[in-house]
Amino acid sequence: ESDVIAQAFRIGNYVSLHDLPGRIKPGQVSRGRFQKILENRQASEYAEVPAGRFQSKPKLFSEFEYLPSPYSIVDEIQAAERLEHQAAVEKVGHKKAFVLA
Description:
By secondary structure, the chain is mainly alpha-helical. The protein has a domain at 2-41. The protein is built from three helices and no strands. The chain has helices at 2-8, 28-41, 73-92. It starts with a helix and ends in a 9-residue tail after the last helix.
């Protein structure tokens, strides 16, 4: 019991001070922990009764279909941009792109 009380005052504890009894007597801490275990095992009055065998949780994200993309998509985009640039240069009347000397 002394270990449980000491853990309640440590940083990162998993024993809540709220769960300790107001007045500590011999066996009171262990009795309180056992009572809490029994309360947690009992079904809540407010719990919904599931309609079927399985009830899904509410979904936070919309479902989507995975569409794999090719690894070379970056190269294909750059090649298309390069062709557009070359076509624009030829449209203006230049044979080569302007290069600084």
